Amino acid sequence: MLEHFYDEIFIPPAVQRECKTGAAQIALQHSFFNVVPVNNILLLNMGEGEKEVLSLAFERDIKEILTDDLRPYNYALRNGLSPINSFEFIVAAKEAQFIDKVQPVLDAMREKGEGIHEELYQEILRQAEEL
Amino acid sequence: MSVQLVIDVDDWLIEGKDPKQVEEQMKNDLILDEYKNGDISIGQIAEHTGRTIEEAMGWVSSHGLSAYNRMTPEMITNSVKKGKALAERLKKSKQAQ
């Protein structure tokens, strides 16, 4: 669905390396994902993937990054970027009518082992007006 | 002069547990705590523990943790707003085309 929202989607090499197996590896084979090198990697206390995502965004003056990790998310916010997380994207997909409901996506994430506990699950569904 | 020592022993000294095993457990507990507090990411856990991203996600999940567990109701409210704004932007962009 990302391709409906963005004209170009960039992935730094470290993130590509992290997606060694499973669905992520297959997804990255789509032509709308551009794996591009990062020239200047920021010295940050984060994982290689997070560092390269932030560095690439600054290097190419791209405002939006997609991350589910709190540290890069907050760093991006503090430094003028506009981070989004998967949940925000799922809500956007629903609003844009690419999906009917948030719930099946959350269920699939839970089945995959995302560890979304019941209280949070219920709160998300409540706020997404599905309860 | 007496030779003095102040120690802060961990319980493995007293209980006779395997120090390596305890060290590993303490390391794991620390990693999980840091993840819970948002101080380290899945990517870092994978790097530091020699796991793949999927394995690291499975590992934190087996301890009842995930990136989403740090979301408060306020954060969810903001996320819903941001998601709606993202969809609105897409709508406008499609209309402009």
| Secondary-structure-derived class of chain B | mainly alpha
Rounded to an integer, what's the Rg of chain A over CA atoms? 16 Å
> What's the count of strands of chain B?
0
Largest sheet of chain B: none
Q: Mind telling me the CATH class of the largest domain in chain A?
A: Alpha Beta
When the domains of chain A are counted, the total is 2
Give me the CATH superfamily of the largest domain in chain A: 5'-nuclease
How many H/I helical runs of chain B? Answer: 5
Oligomeric status of the shown chains? heterodimer
Write the CATH fold name of the largest domain in chain A. Rossmann fold
User: What about the largest sheet of chain A?
Assistant: 2 strands, parallel
Largest interface: A-B, 42 and 38 residues
Low-confidence stretches of chain B: none
The helix fraction of chain B, in percent, is 55-70%
- The end-to-end distance of chain A, rounded to whole angstroms, is 25 Å
Helicity of chain A, as a percent range = 40-55%
Please, what is the average pLDDT of chain B?
80
Would you mind describing this structure in some detail?
The complex is a heterodimer of chains A (131) and B (97). Chain A has two domains: 2-84, 3-Layer(aba) Sandwich (Rossmann fold); 87-127, no CATH class. Chain A is mainly alpha-helical. Chain A contains eight helices and four strands; from the N terminus they run αβααβαβαβααα. The longest helix of chain A is centred in the middle third of the chain and has 12 residues, at 48-59. In chain A, α5 (70-78) links the parallel β3 and β4 (82-84). A two-stranded parallel ribbon of chain A has the order 1-2. A two-stranded parallel ribbon of chain A has the order 3-4. Chain B is an all-alpha fold and 97 residues long. Chain B folds into two domains: 10-65, no CATH class; 71-97. Helices cover 67% and strands 0% of the residues of chain B.
